[in-house]
From TrEMBL:
Family, per entry: Belongs to the short-chain dehydrogenases/reductases (SDR) family.
Record key words, sorted: Oxidoreductase
Protein name (Swiss-Prot/TrEMBL): 3-oxoacyl-[acyl-carrier-protein] reductase
Phylogenetic placement of the source organism: Bacteria, Bacillati, Actinomycetota, Actinomycetes, Kitasatosporales
Spans traversing the lipid bilayer: none
Organism of this sequence: Streptomyces xiamenensis
């Protein structure tokens, strides 16, 4: 086991020895909350996204953040983004893949190939390619990877097959990567959230006439706040989770295990 680091998290603040975290999708929702939390806990943080205005906003909100504009749905773009971060900071300790796309809804029999390519490229190839590109740097720090999956990896709803398949594939990748990267001291885990109050989820809640989000789908009677998921991610990324690898932690208020009430 890797020895825990000496010193408090505050000791790392503003230090060139401070650990470095790359949060893909760190310009919104769960990724932004994670970037904020890791920054508060002493990491130097880089975020990735496609939209320049969101990147600029994240840079204003998180002083010192390194914002990288990239579409992480291809191997080439993922490798270039990781190389830019390692070049900027000289090291990488934590990779969080929090970018993702839900895709257009549609039944399996009718979905066009492009719908599959878009969602699998973004949600599965992107995290795989980013992880592979990060391995040399993570080996040097004996770092950690946390992927943001979804409970859609383990349960099905109509008309969302590419999303569920991408997230199930991400869980499988998490386990295989954990198996292959353990010899380098790299841990790989995933968090599987239920509903989280982020911009795309809020838009959906408003569309279905429930702006507060569904209250009856889990035991806790509410949706999660992004900061609650960020806490799970930050724990898995930290040395407090030094004996956890290959795990997919469900954070859904009990939605996955809740039986529907009898009529
Ligand atoms: N919200 C929920 O209820 C919920 C539940 C379970 C799982 N999740 C998962 O949590 C993750 C974050 O979702 P969220 O709700 O926080 O969404 P969000 O607020 O829309 O954030 C998504 C982030 O990903 C970036 N992104 C999207 N496609 C990208 C691409 N091809 N390349 C690079 N960056 C890209 C976005 O920036 P740009 O658009 O500027 O690229 C943004 O920063 C996703 O993987 C999602 O599947 C969410």
């Amino acid at each position: 086991m890797t020895a825990p680091r000496a010193g408090s998290q505050e000791d790392f603040m503003e230090s060139s020895d401070a650990p470095v975290a790359l949060v893909t999708g760190g310009t919104s929702g769960i990724g932004l909350a994670t970037a904020r939390l890791l920054s508060e806990r002493g990491h130097r943080v880089a975020v990735c996204g496609r939209d320049q205005r969101r990147l600029d906003r994240a840079a204003r909100e998180l002083p010192g953040v390194h914002a990288v504009r990239a579409d992480l749905s291809t191997w080439e773009a993922a490798a270039a983004a990781v190389a830019e971060v390692v070049s900027a900071f000289g090291r990488l300790d934590v990779l969080v893949t929090a970018h993702g796309a839900v895709g257009e809804p549609g039944p399996v029999a009718e979905l066009p190939a492009a719908a599959w390519d878009h969602v699998l490229g973004t949600n599965l190839i992107g995290p795989i390619a980013t992880t592979v590109a990060a391995v040399p740097a993570l080996r040097r720090t004996r770092g950690a990877v946390v992927h943001v999956g979804s409970i859609s990896a383990i349960q099905a709803t109509p008309q969302t097959a590419p999303y569920g398949v991408s997230k199930a594939g991400l869980v499988a990748f998490t386990k295989h990567a954990a198996a292959d990267l353990a010899e380098f001291g790299i841990r790989v885990n995933a968090v599987l959230p239920g509903w989280v109050r982020t911009p795309p989820a809020i838009a959906y809640f408003e569309q279905i006439g429930r702006p507060e989000g569904p209250r009856d789908g889990n035991f806790l009677g509410r949706v999660a706040e992004p900061a609650e998921i960020a806490e799970v991610i930050a724990f898995l990324a930290s040395r407090k989770a030094s004996f956890i690898t290959g795990e997919a932690v469900v954070a859904d208020g009990g939605e996955w295990i809740k039986m529907s009430d009898p009529e």
